[in-house]
Amino acid sequence: MLSPELFKKIKRIEIVSKHLVENVLSGDYLSTFHGQGLEFSEVREYQAGDDVRLIDWNVTARLQKPFVKVFQEERELTVVLAVDISGSSEFGSRGSSKRELAAQLAAALGFAAAGHGDRVGMLLFSDRVEYALPARRGRTHVLRGVRDLLSFRARGRGSDLGPALLRLPSLAKRKAVVFLISDFQVEDPWTPLKGAALRYDLVPCLVGDPAEERPPAGMGMVPCRDPETGRHYWLDTDSPGARRAWDAAARARREALASGFLKLKSDWFEVRTDQDFLGPLVRFFKARERRSQQGR
Questions:
Q1: Could you give the dihedral angle defined by the CA atoms of residues 61, 73, 134 and 126, in that order, rounded to the nearest 10 degrees?
Q2: Quick one: average pLDDT of 194-198?
Q3: In 81, 145, 249, 261, which residue has its Cα 20 to 30 A from 2's Cα atom?
Q4: What is the three-class DSSP state of 12?
Q5: Mean pLDDT score, 275-288
Q6: Rounded distance between C-alpha atoms, residue 278 and residue 295, angstroms
Q7: Residue partners of 275: CB distance under 8 A and separation at least 6
Q8: Band of the pLDDT at 40, cuts 50, 70, 90?
């Protein structure tokens, strides 16, 4: 049973996501994510400029003039939403937690995929696989995944990408688009990410909060707790040295992630709890579409 508060939250996400998909994201999604191959459509008479490798020699011999095979892109995709629900996902300094932001993003991506007949699956993970929803078609299926994303209580508190990415073949038997939604606060993300990027169209989605990059000033000594390890420590928010060290560590971490994603040749984007996720998502779609057209 869902609490009234959670029910309202899910309904609000559903309504907002439906509006975004129908009015903003639908065309961008379709032009950005293509099918997994080509399938034969028909033959037609050869025209100047056609690729001679596509000539159908059997039909050409029978009709005594050249004909070529015509192929069309296989449209259907499998989309997997792999979402980090470890302890750090519960953090949020601007009204919503990173987990709630992840749910909004997952809903928009899931409804966009479902609207074009693609199959959508979901994988929730912490330091283990917490929940897996097989890939199926339909908005109702996506909505079920969003509901479970918001309501599921994780057993683990830490983060580990390995078990989640190793589980992907059970959700996507063939090549799929995998949106990996996480704050990537893990020891070594690169070993499991390399394997997944070789097999799937991997799209890392970095979820952040401004307080993780720069703690609020003027609060003196503040007690803090690591939500994944449970470790307690004190932070002097008035200390210029402590604040510089915090800023430097956050900047170095983000630069390392950006550099690593680039080496993987994975398109990625970042969303934050203090900003609307729509802008970064649309910019990602547009940039990916441009790269796709340049590569053709």
A1: 130
A2: 94
A3: 81
A4: helix
A5: 93
A6: 26
A7: none
A8: low
Angstrom distance (rounded) from CA 249 to CA 238: 17
Paired tokens of 183: 């704050």
Joined tokens for residue 114: 């479902």
Q: What is the pTM of this model?
A: 0.84
Give residue 75's pLDDT: 58
What is the Cα–Cα distance from 103 to 1, expressed in whole angstroms? 19
> Which pLDDT score, from 0 to 100, does residue 35 have?
59
pLDDT by residue (tens digit) across 230-259?
888 888 888 888 888 888 999 999 999 999
pLDDT band at 73 (very low <50, low <70, confident <90, very high): low
46 exposure class (CB count in 10 Å sphere: 0-12, 13-18, 19+): middle
Element (H, E) at 207: strand 201-208
**Region for residue 220 given its phi and psi (left: phi exceeds 0; alpha: psi -120 to 50; beta: otherwise):** left
The token pair at 249 is 């560590």
CA-based R_g, the chain, Å = 23
| Torsion angle, alpha carbons of 272, 278, 283, 285, to 10 | 120
pLDDT in tens, 41-54: 688 899 888 888 88
Phi, psi of 59 (to 5 degrees): -65, -40
Q: Where are the alpha helices (DSSP H) in the chain?
A: 4-20, 26-32, 57-63, 98-115, 139-151, 161-171, 190-199, 210-213, 240-264, 278-295
Give the highest mean pLDDT range of 153-157, 178-182, 184-188, 288-292: 178-182
Interaxial angle between packed helices 98-115 and 139-151, expressed in degrees from 0 to 180 and rounded to the nearest 10: 170
- For 250, list phi and psi in degrees, rounded to 5: -65, -40
